[in-house]
Amino acid sequence: MSPRLRVLGGAAVLAAVAWWVGPEPFVQAVRSAGPAALAAAMAITAVTTVCCAWRWQVLAHRLGVEVPLRDAVAAYYRSQFLNATLPTGVVGDVHRAVRHGTLPVVADRGSGQAVQAVAAGGVLLLGPAPWASALLAAGLVAALVRWPVVVVASLVAAAGHVVVFLVAARAAGTGASLGALLPLALLVMLAAAVPLNVAGWGPREGVAAAAFAAAGLGAAQGATVAVLYGVLALVATLPGAVLWTRGVVRA
C-alpha cells in the first residue's frame, strides 16, 4: 500500500470521527492531559521502549546484526518520535532499517504485532469462545518456549500500551470499571496497528468511538480517550526528539 493511500485513509477516518462526534472531544482530550497522566505515560513508555529495544536486539543478533542495547533504546526512541510526528507512521522504522538493516526491523515489528494480536485475541475470546482462547494460549506458550525474549518483551510492551490507554480513560473522566475498559483498550490497540493512519491517528479514534458507543459509554467519550491516548503517546516519545536533535547537531 502506498504511503499516500495510508495517509488519505487515516485522514478520511479521522474526518469521519470529527463529523460524528464534533470538535469537543478533541478539545476535551487536550484539556485532560494533566501532569500526572503525562508523567505516567512517559514512565510506562520508558519501560515499553526498553522491552521493544531488547526484542529488536535479540532478533538482530540472530540475524547476524549486532546492536548494543543502549544504542537500540536510543534508536527505538528516535523511531517512535518520527513515527508519531510524520504522516505515514513508519518513517522511524525506515530510519532504523537504513541504519541497522531491513530484516531485523521487519522481524521486530512483525513479531511484536503477532504476539499482541494473539494475546489480545485470547483475552477478547475468553468469554464467548473459551476453546478458541485455549488454542491461542497454547500457541503463545509454544512461542514462549521457542522465543522467550521475543514473547515476554512483546507482552510487556503491549501491556504497557494498554495501561497508557487506561490512564487516558481515567484522565478523561471515564467511570467504567477496568474490567469493562480492558476489552475496549485491546480493540483500540489492535486498530492502532492498522496501516491506514496519519502518524498513528485515524483507525484508533474510529474504533474507540464505535466501541465505546457499543458499550454504552458514548462515541464522544471514546473519541476523547483515544485522542488523549494519542497526546500522551506523542509526549512520551519526546526523548526521541532530543536524541534526534543531538544526532543532527553532531552530524
- Structural shape: globular
What profile does the largest beta sheet have?
Answer: none
> On the 0-100 scale, what is the average pLDDT?
86
The count of domains is 1
Low-confidence stretches: none
Helicity level: over 70%
Helices and strands, in order, run as HHHHHHHHHHHH
Q: What share of the residues does DSSP label as strand, in percent?
A: under 5%
Radius of gyration from the alpha-carbon trace, in angstroms: 18 Å
Alpha-carbon distance between the two ends: 33 Å
User: What is the number of E strands?
Assistant: 0
Structural class: mainly alpha
Number of helices: 12
Transmembrane segments: 33-54, 117-141, 147-168, 180-201, 207-236
Protein name: UPF0104 family protein
Subcellular location: Cell membrane
Pfam families: LPG_synthase_TM
Walk me through what this model shows.
By secondary structure, this protein is mainly alpha-helical. It has one domain (24-246). Helices cover 82% and strands 0% of the residues. It has twelve helices and no strands. It has helices spanning 3-21, 24-31, 35-62, 69-85, 91-100, 102-125, 130-146, 148-171, 178-192, 203-214, 219-236, 238-250. Helix 1 runs parallel beside helix 10 and helix 5 (91-100) crosses helix 6. The chain is globular, with a radius of gyration of 18 Å. The protein starts with a helix and ends with a helix. It comes from Nocardioides agri. It is a multi-pass membrane protein.
